[in-house]
Design goal:
The protein is α/β, with parallel strands linked by helices and about 425 residues long. It is built from 15 helices and 16 strands. The strands form three sheets. Strands 13-12-11-10-14-15-16 form a seven-stranded mixed β-sheet, with helices on both faces. The protein has a five-stranded mixed β-sheet with strand order 1-5-2-4-3, with helices on one face. A hairpin with a 2-residue loop joins strand 3 and strand 4. The longest helix has 18 residues, at about 65-80.
């Protein structure tokens, strides 16, 4: 019998490994029920049909506890033999459960996820005093997603360190408090251009006006800091004067959704989340798109139309950086959702206030300045991995699709 402490044994750790099949846990715990024991901890994982089951038990009686544990160890070995599995039993000291500082969830996304990347991430966690309590895979495609439960590390220190590590290793890493991930109603708010969709709508409209180059030049001036967003929007919209309103329908049909966008929105709404889009683009395109996808709230700029043509002006206040953050707060209040249960997704400087205001800000294929200020970032070309950052597994996505009769693409063979 192995002992991991010199003091009187008070716990027994039983680990079974072998081929997975129904009833392993029931068989083991059923046999242990014959002894005066309580279960202190349990964990199980299955990889490629191989099961590892760990059960920590302790005696419920004061006298003869060592004999109880010895008998339980013999029982565990007998169960393992009957199931043609391997058993490892370790006697230990009383179970101490001290409070753990910094209970965090670290999600690692790779396309592909290489051993060197996971090694680099886990080494950095260890170097900062973090202990990895649990590792599970939450998705195998379109990216591989691994979730690590970490204790003992400071959230901000770990987030900053892993941001550097993720950039060097070519993976996406999110660090968040466990509390954010509890089930309940969330509000997820997305930017539209270059986030929900692959296009910049104003450039599609500019194509009809024959002024793509001019619109792009104004955009570049704004990116250089020569114009703020409102100024740049007014300047670009002015170039659209005279475009027939009918061109907007053509633009709507030309819009390309980002891969995974439908899956993301469909899954969120089926699981009871509230979804919104806030765009510096235009309602003539954003509103029909939101309706098509079943998005609950939408806000965007309104183009003025007179006698069937664009006037080159915007009606009402511009949806700029500050307005996006305000829309997030307004939608959250309308839905009765606290701000710490809000998620914002965006790619540009115009999204920074919204990303900062949300409980979790996600930079999606964003410029470096945006990624540096967001809570986490995604660099893969798919939008549905956002689900994995929210604790939604690939299996849950497929189950929701199956229940609704939606065909799910077959995963790649690995």
């Amino acid at each position: 019998m192995d002992h991991d402490a010199d003091e009187q044994p008070r716990t027994l750790l039983i680990t079974l490994t072998g081929r997975d099949r129904p009833g392993v846990t029931a068989t083991l715990t059923g046999a242990l029920a014959a002894h005066d024991l309580e279960i202190l901890d349990a964990e199980q994982v299955v990889i490629r049909g191989r099961l590892t089951l760990g059960v920590l038990v302790g005696p419920t009686v004061e006298h003869g506890s060592a004999l109880v544990l010895d008998a339980a160890a013999d029982t565990a070995r007998e169960v393992a033999a009957s199931l043609e599995m391997d058993a490892d039993v370790v006697l230990g000291a009383a179970e101490h459960v001290p409070g753990r500082r910094g209970r965090l969830l670290v999600t690692v996304l790779g396309h592909p996820l290489l051993p060197s990347a996971l090694s680099g991430i886990t080494r950095r966690i260890s170097a900062l005093g973090g202990n990895i309590d649990r590792i599970v895979r939450t998705a195998a495609y379109p990216v591989t997603a691994i979730e690590l439960s970490v204790s003992g590390a400071d959230q901000q220190e770990l987030r900053e360190a892993l941001a550097v590590e993720s950039a060097a290793l070519g993976v996406d890493v999110a660090v968040q408090r466990r509390g954010l991930r509890g089930r309940g109603t969330y509000l997820v708010v997305m930017d539209v251009d270059s986030t929900l969709i692959q296009d910049e709508v104003i450039e599609l409209i500019a194509h009809h006006a024959g002024c793509e180059a001019e619109v792009r030049e104004v955009t570049e001036r704004a990116m250089r800091g020569e114009l703020d967003f409102a100024e740049s929007l007014h300047a670009r919209v002015a170039l659209l004067a005279g475009v027939p309103e009918s061109a907007l329908a053509e633009v709507r049909s030309a819009v390309r959704l980002t891969p995974g966008a439908r899956t993301l929105v469909r899954t969120l709404t089926r699981l009871g989340f509230r979804v919104a889009v806030v765009s510096g683009g235009f309602s003539a395109v954003v509103d029909p798109l939101a309706e098509e996808l079943g998005i609950h709230h939408a806000r965007a700029n309104v183009l003025e139309v007179v006698d069937g043509v664009l006037t080159g002006r915007v009606v009402g206040a511009v949806v700029d950086r500050a307005a996006k953050a305000e829309a997030l707060r307004e939608f959250a209040a309308l839905e009765g959702i606290p701000m710490d249960r809000t998620v914002a997704i965006g790619d540009g400087a115009n999204d920074l206030d919204m990303l900062a205001a949300a409980g979790l800000g996600i930079a999606f294929n964003a410029k470096p300045v945006v990624r540096a200020q967001a809570d986490t970032g995604l660099t893969v070309p798919f939008l549905d991995p956002v689900l994995y950052l929210l604790g939604i597994t690939r299996e849950e996505i497929e189950q929701a699709d199956a229940e609704a009769g939606t065909p799910t693409p077959a995963p790649p063979v690995r």
